[in-house]
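Hi R.,

Here's the chain you asked about this morning:
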Amino acid sequence: MLVAFSVAPSGDPANGQAPGDASVHDAVAAAVRIVRESGLPNRTSSMFTEIEGEWDQVMDVVKRATDAVGAYGSRVSLVLKADIRPGYSGELTGKVERLENAIDGQGAGGAGPQIPTRPGNQVY
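And here is the predicted structure, written out as tokens:
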């Protein structure tokens, strides 16, 4: 299972120490630290953290990451998207590799689609 999630606090934390710049990087760092310490394959981008594992493992990590963010606000927003494909692993990188191969014209369909070009072979 692959899960992409984003978690962020809102509202004043219980201790009343809200950051002055409205940044959530400390809260996100707490969540990502939990993901990385889980030992499950993961990666973080500017908007989401992706994690791969079995259902119970992944959901446990997402819950603990969400709980950690809760310390930074009175409310937590969680966005989660899952790709549930039993029997598959290594998809965190495998899906991207297949996409790149398709873009490069090395997909299962052979040479790939022809890209229209302008005179001088400039792609448009």
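One quick note: The helical segments are 25-37, 55-70, 91-103.

Cheers,
M.
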